[in-house]
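Submission sheet (multi-component)
Chains listed below:
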Amino acid sequence: MRHTISVLVDNRPGVLSRIAGLFSGRGFNIESLSVNETLDPTMSQMTIVTRGDDRILEQINKQLNKLIDIIKVVDYESSGSDFIERELALIKVNVDEHKRSEVLSIIDIFRCKVVDVSRTHYTVEVTGDENKIQAIIDLFRPLGIKELIRSGKAAMLRENKIKG
Amino acid sequence: MTKNPTKLKGAQILLECLHREKVKVIFGYPGGSVLDVYNSLYDSDLQHILVRHEQAAVHAADGYARVTGDVGVCLVTSGPGATNTVTGLATAYMDSIPIVVFTGQVPTMLIGNDAFQEADIVGISRPCTKHNYLVKTVAELPRIIKEAFYIARSGRPGPVLVDLPKDIIGAEIDFEYPEKTDMRSYRPTYKGNRRQIIRAVDELAKSKKPVIYAGGGVVLSNASHELGLFARSFQIPVTTTLMGMGCYPGTDSLSLGMLGMHGTYRANMAVTNCDLLIAVGARFDDRVTGDLNTFAAGATVIHIDIDPTSISKNIKVSIPIVGDAREILKEIIEVAGEKKVKKADRKVWLDEIADWKHKHSMDYQMDEVIKPQYVVEKIYELTKGKAIITTEVGQNQMWAAQYYLFDEPRRFLTSGGLGTMGYGFPAAIGAQVANPKATVIDIAGDGSIQMNIQELATAVQYGLPVKIAILNNMCLGMVRQWQQLFYKKRYSHSTFARHPDFVKLAEAYGAVGLRAEKPGEVVSVIKKALAVKDRPVIMDFVVDPEECVYPMVPAGAPISNMILL
Ligand SMILES: Cc1ncc(C[n+]2csc(CCOP(=O)(O)OP(=O)(O)O)c2C)c(N)n1
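Outcome: structure written.
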């Protein structure tokens, strides 16, 4: 099962390597990771997407909690709460004569933004959940993707929607 | 906060903080980047034991911590001094021993430049410390030291490393020591969940065949008294792990001895057949459980541990209780009293256990040559079970655990989790420094003792009467045993063609050297050694090279599948 885990940490040097070391040392895997400062600059927020059975996820949660610099760990799946998950992709797609209109219509349908234009390529910015981003990539791929960058996931609980 | 701050250098701050933490002794080795600290030590009352290798400094601090329950402290230089501490840190980490290791570091400006004697010890030690710090400004030094000691001794204890760049040790600042630490990201749980405790008591009331499986956590939380009270009130037999040795009296009639790979027949049978397993401060290590599917398969499992990651890691637990073993045992006894749980009649269960004991007790065959078990047995008798015993790793360690019965905790010091050869002798030095009057004996193998033999010089210098009993089988006995049993006796690189003359070696260092070659000489050698009070002694026991440790459960097999003598 895939899990999205939100980790609130003390904003100190070395925290990221503690977490990365924990995952590699214990054979857990990280599918996606994003880190940034919170409103309170003494803390950072990480969103980690990982995979494993219940026993492994239980260990991941407990081991994270055990690290001294970690303030709070929430496993969104296990907590049974509803949450929003987003990632961002920058896609440099080929736009020669025959393809430009098709690219533009995909951009339109998916409400993405063109953030850079050259004679041969558009750089497209997309935000959304993983499915949306995968769908666009699948549509662009036959047209020719020159470069692709995806961010880690950012996730947040929905307000007042805790299922209990 | 202290009232009148005074200007102090980083080095002085370090010593002042150690003083505030009531540190009495440190184990260390100097070098370029900690010269300022050593300069301050020159005027200090703090006792410093100069070891001969930094690994030994850490093991000695670890031994000191295990016998006293206080935090052990080390001080070493940067680069090679720091990297030499790694095995000691990993050893302490695996056994949850509270120590703080201070390492020198190159000046802040040079970090990352491959400077002379630079090593990224914070990076290197990250997976084998509970926590570590690189001090970046002298202003944060007092807080970091306070936190380091707090983290080392609280919750599930463990080693903490503090890396001190040379410029920080030299910088001056107004010194104020924080009275308290408040870490929002670290708040260990001590009190057990009441609901779970009630459930545990209900299970106990129903159980016909309970067993307590007690580990190092009982020792660390000083819960022996409560464990004893609990076991005796409800007539529950107790088996201990290697780390739990002595947390329940080994001579008590409810004691089953050690369980696991080289456990007693009755302990392994009792665990296999019990209907309720109460694990206290133990972590279901693979050397204990063998095959997980058959381990206490018919039992409800209650697991009391301060570290949530230990619970349900290897085995599914029905009633997890996170918290301090002592607090929780107290509460269980209380709740059982409130609920008027009857003092069960355990005759049937205890008789069954007595039968197992009768069928296969610890035993060996006497011979013309000295049997290593006989040596341990005689040491036990002649010290009346009151010595502090440390061990190396291998057969010597298992025989010590099997044939020396401990009635008190903090008397048996062994590297359980990491299995570090070379641990026992420096740990004995640490234990002797903590208890100058006690009898401290390292039960050693001829292989392991050579891993930190240089510490004889340390023990001689400080007049420490540590005794080393080498069970000299001219081989890496435990390796040879596995090759004998599982590799068709192909003794690949496990036997020694030559050893130094251990008696002369001891004498060369200024220690006493004794040798026994026949069973008849064993007692007199031990007696002579015990009479020495001012210097270390090596006892070289020339023992049967073919002897194996039994019972033995092959790795991964059910623990009821024991190879018996
Ligand atoms: C540092 C280290 N290296 C290797 C081992 C693997 N090992 C485990 S037991 C053993 C043999 C120990 O021999 P010895 O000290 O003579 O003790 P004996 O088993 O003969 O009592 C070895 C090599 C270890 N535990 N630690």
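Remark: The mean pLDDT of chain A is 92.
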